[in-house]
Amino acid sequence: MNPSSDFVCRIQAVVGEEVIALHEPNIGQREQEVVSACLASGFVSSVGAFVGTFEESLARLAGVRYVNAVSSGTAALHVALLAVGVKPGDEVLVPSATFIATANAVSYCGAIPHFVDIDPRTMGIDPHFLDNWLESIAARTSAGTVNRHSGNRIVACVPMHTFGHPVDMEGICSVAQKWDLRIVEDAAEALGSMLNGRYCGTFGDVGVLSFNGNKIVTTGGGGAILTNDDEIAKQSRHLSTTAKIPHSWDFDHDDIGFNYRMPNVNAALGCAQLEQLEEMIASKRRLLKAYLEAFESFKSGRIFVEPLGARSNYWLQTLILFEEHEHTRDDLLGVAHAAGIKLRPLWKPIHSLLPYRNAPSSPLPETERLARRVINLPSSSFLV
Ligand SMILES: *Cc1c(COP(=O)(O)O)cnc(C)c1O
Known about the structure:
The protein is 36% helix and 17% strand. The protein contains twelve helices and 18 strands. The strands form five sheets. Strands 1-13-12-9-8-2-3 form a seven-stranded mixed sheet, sandwiched between helices. The chain has a four-stranded antiparallel sheet with strand order 14-16-18-17. A hairpin with a 2-residue loop joins strand 10 and strand 11. It binds pyridoxal-5'-phosphate (PLP).
């Protein structure tokens, strides 16, 4: 059998032969009930009990003091960066192997994303590489860490948990401490993932989740900001609710804030979805086992498995092609699409996209290697 038909057969052995999406929401009876109750209450917008309930459930689940539910993961990143003190002209260290929202949120602050390379074992920022890179380009000054080439402050780092797999947060936190960087943890894909028993999104000064329709748990569209820090919590809530000073009737605003609050109807959907998170993760871990078996003797690549010490939510299942087969990627994608299997490669690395071609960057050999080799497989949580 030729390699691309072999590839399609292995996927179909797991997911069947119908047309299949990369990832679809898993919506059942419970979601219908809770959203209907919300609609019946008449409180569908920015006031209503489901938002508070959703925030409390998330806080209890992740073990953090404060959760602020907002309208998207991108909005959550934007406000989190502002809340840790990112200012126009600052540089923020981000992976290039990520969804563009990670870099865009930095740009919304008037700040500059500065790309750094990843560790192929986690697909996220490599702390050793990060430290070496800072040693070679940065200086500690009384104003904080400064990029010696641009003269800009380097104030924060945004590690991202690729496809739900925990990045080495302990390593990144110690580098951040050494260089006096704030950490905004982009856990948009990693709800429920853990590293050494601790939830992703709770390692940094602040963490961010997404509940977009393609994520493991959805609110239609939505996001959340997680933190244990009183000031960050206060500031992020203030900025995401138009910086309005709470008052029964008066409209007084002390800053230029944003209309980022999560609507109640979205939170209602989130409450019902969150009840099923553990079952969804269990389903994704069963799917991993099925793919591991189906691809055991596959000649062109291997299924990615979570790093040591991690419990990944396996949001998206990943095949990594071997170097000698990476040139076959587009063939495999093309034949799979023709068979109705909607696979995708890694995002184009952000440093290669038009808006970010001139942004500061370390060498990115591992990012570029990964970008040639990743294929995400169908990953919905109802498949097996
Ligand atoms: C989905 C995602 C976001 C943005 O979330 P939205 O809710 O779609 O705005 C940010 N970062 C990463 C890595 C994501 O996957």
